[in-house]
TrEMBL record:
Keyword S-adenosyl-L-methionine: no
Protein name: Tat pathway signal sequence
Alphabetized UniProt keyword annotations: Membrane, Transmembrane, Transmembrane helix
Bilayer-crossing regions: 47-69
Recorded superkingdom: Eukaryota
Organism: Talaromyces rugulosus (Penicillium rugulosum)
Lineage: Eukaryota, Fungi, Dikarya, Ascomycota, Pezizomycotina
Keyword Glycoprotein applies: no
Length: 312
């Protein structure tokens, strides 16, 4: 065995050595911690970049959605109306705004009285005739099919009218309803409109009574179909013991003026329509005996009096 040698160490050297060791450990600590100190700002910068990118993507998405919705609203203002209506090609031809209107529904005639409430006159008749515009319009074969009708049966416009070979005869039902209301208005002023034709004590024709019955029932069905649930209130009047109804309520209405203008610009004259006759390739529907009686069909077809008919 070799003897262990111990060397004397100066106390001052020991202090220095201890101090050096302390400095060395501090240096190592700073060296090891330095990458971490630099990494924190880098991580923050990356996080901020990710957040900025995310915010930009969200903003871009919201902008895209806004543009799409705006274009959709501009392209088709009738989405809500389509949801509450059967198919109609009119929705593809005109934008129909929804407007809030307060009904003028006072019991007494206002001053000035609306022309539609005035007694019969040429001016009143002209105003009602404009609203009861039952002129026909042009629809396509596709329209006929989407309306649930058979194109092989539906009547077409003659090609001589210039509408092409795929043009069918259609009408807007609303104007027929107004026509029926006007018919009832005339019935309420029977002597003025029909007194010369049917003086007092002379019953009107069977066709006239049937027409009135048709109109009353048609309007009833349309009122029930629309089923308006708007509410009217009541107020106390000094001339009534009970609360009096206030019928002048607000309704959400389709812009009638817009539809009427389109009808006036695109409909075909009724006289031209009345001159159209059935083409030979079409098979006529067999109408009922009652229908033929009303229209005097047997007068011009005396040999067909036994025909029982099918519809009408």
């Amino acid at each position: 065995m070799y003897p262990i040698k111990y060397e004397a160490v100066d106390s001052s050297d020991a202090e220095v050595s201890e101090h050096d060791a302390t400095d060395s450990s501090n240096l190592n600590y700073e060296i090891e911690e330095s990458p971490g100190n630099k990494g924190l700002p880098m991580k923050r910068e990356k996080l901020l970049l990710w957040l900025n990118g995310l915010i930009f993507c969200i903003s871009l998405y919201l902008l895209f959605v806004t543009v799409i919705l705006t274009r959709r609203n501009n392209d088709d203002l009738n989405d809500l109306l389509r949801m509450t209506s059967e198919y109609s090609p009119i929705f593809d031809r005109i934008d129909i705004p929804l407007v809030t209107k307060k009904m003028n529904a006072t019991l007494l005639e206002p001053d000035p009285s609306p022309i539609y409430r005035r007694p019969p006159s040429p001016e009143v008749d002209e105003a009602w005739n404009r609203l009861a515009n039952i002129k026909p319009i042009v629809i396509s074969r596709s329209d006929v099919i989407q309306l649930g009708r058979d194109p092989s049966v539906a009547a077409k416009w003659p090609e001589s009218f210039g509408f092409g070979s795929d043009a069918y005869i259609g009408r807007i039902d609303m104007f027929h309803q107004i026509h029926c209301l006007d018919w009832l208005r005339r019935e309420a002023n029977f002597d003025h409109y029909y007194g010369k034709k049917w003086p007092p004590g002379t019953p009107p024709s069977d066709m006239h009574r049937t027409h009135v019955s048709h109109c009353i029932y048609l309007l009833l069905q349309n009122l029930m179909c629309n089923a308006n649930v708007d509410i009217y209130t009541h107020y106390w009047a000094d001339a009534q013991l009970n609360a009096f109804p206030d019928f002048s309520v607000n309704h959400k209405c389709r812009d009638f003026d817009a539809i009427l203008k389109w009808q006036e610009d695109n409909s075909v004259d009724v006289d031209l329509f009345a001159a159209i006759r059935k083409p030979p390739q079409y098979e006529a529907k067999i109408m009922s005996h009652r229908f033929k009686e009303l229209f005097g069909w047997f007068d011009s077809h005396p040999d067909n009096g036994s025909d029982s008919g099918e519809i009408g």
